[in-house]
Amino acid sequence: MKNIIIITFAALSIILSSGCKKKKTTETVDPCANTVCLNGGTCNDGSCACPLGFSGADCGTQKTPTVIVTSIKVTNFPGLDGTSTWDAITATNPDLLAVFKKVSTGATILTTGVSTDATVGTPYILSGVTPTVISDFTTLYTLELWDKDTGISAPDDLMGSVTFYIYTSTNKFPSTLTVTSGSVTFEVSLTYTF
Ligand SMILES: [Ca+2]
Ligand SMILES: [Ca+2]
Q1: Distance between CA atoms of 165 and 140, rounded to whole angstroms?
Q2: Average pLDDT over residues 3-30
Q3: What is the pLDDT of residues 41-84, one digit of tens each?
Q4: Which domains does the chain have, with CATH numbers?
Q5: Protein residues within 5 Å, CB atom, of ion ligand 2
Q6: Do 49 and 42 form a contact (C-beta atoms < 8 A)?
Q7: Buried b / exposed e along 158-168 (16+ C-beta atoms within 10 A)
Q8: Is residue 180 within 8 Å of 76, Cβ to Cβ?
C-alpha cells in the first residue's frame, strides 16, 4: 500500500511539473515577435492596428483620400523680369497672386488674393485661399504665379508656373507639398479626409 502511494505521488508530480512547463513555454511566446507593422502601425496580439489612412494586414496600403488645399505659400520667385523690375514704370517689386488650375481642361480651381510689392527671399502666404477639395488624382495641376498689374501696365505678367500631381498612392500624405520650376517655388498645405 505504501509503495502504491509513493508511485502515485511520483506520477502526479511528473504530470504537474510537465503541465507547468508547457504553460510556461506558451507564456513566453510574443505573438508580435514576427509581426511587422508598417507606416506607424502597432502590433496588438499579433495583428496590426493601423493609423488613419493606412490599411492591410501590415498597414502597407495607403487608403485613397480626399485632398484639401488649405494654404498656398510662395517661397521663391524671380526678382526681375529679365533685366527690368516687374513693375517697370514705377520700378517696384511684383504684386504676387497665384492661379491654381487643372492642366487638362485649363479650368481655374482658385485664384488667390494679391501680396503687393513682394520682396525676393521673403515667403508670402497668399490670401483668399478657402479650403478646396481635390479628388481627381489622375490629372496634372498647375500653379501659375502672376504679377498683378493695373492701369497702363495691365494685363498681368506671368512670372512662372509649376506643374505637378497633387497626390500619389505612396506619398504618405505630406502636410506640405513643395513644388518648384525654375525660380518659382510654392508650398501647398494639404489636409486629408478618408
Ligand atoms: Ca508688372
Ligand atoms: Ca504689378
Answers
A1: 5
A2: 53
A3: 999 999 999 999 999 999 999 999 999 999 999 999 999 999 99
A4: 27-63 (2.10.25.10), 64-193 (2.60.40.150)
A5: 87, 95, 147, 149
A6: yes
A7: ebbbbebebbe
A8: yes
Residue (of 189, 169, 165, 185) closest to 177 by Cα position = 189
Determine the distance separating the centroid of ligand 2 and the alpha carbon of 31, expressed in angstroms. 65
Report how far ligand 1's centroid is from the alpha carbon of 102 (Å). Answer: 25
- CA dist 168 and 62 (Å) reads 10
55 vs 64: CA distance, rounded Å? 10
Helices (H), 67-178: none
Report d(CA 157, CA 44) in Å as an integer: 58
Q: Which residues surround ligand 1, an ion (CB under 5 A)?
A: 86-87, 147, 149, 157
For 156-180, write each residue's pLDDT tens digit. 999 999 999 999 999 999 999 999 9
Which letter does DSSP use for residue 90 in this model?
Answer: T
Q: Which three cell numbers stand for residue 87?
A: 513693375
Cα(87)–Cα(116) distance, integer angstroms? 11
CB 105 within 8 A of CB 122: no
The amino acid present at 9, given as its one-letter code, is F
- Do 193 and 68 form a contact (C-beta atoms < 8 A)? yes
User: C-alpha grid cell for residue 1?
Assistant: 500500500
At a CB cut-off of 8 Å and minimum separation 6, what does 27 contact? none
How far is the centre of ligand 1, averaged over its atoms, from the C-alpha of 119 (Å)? 14
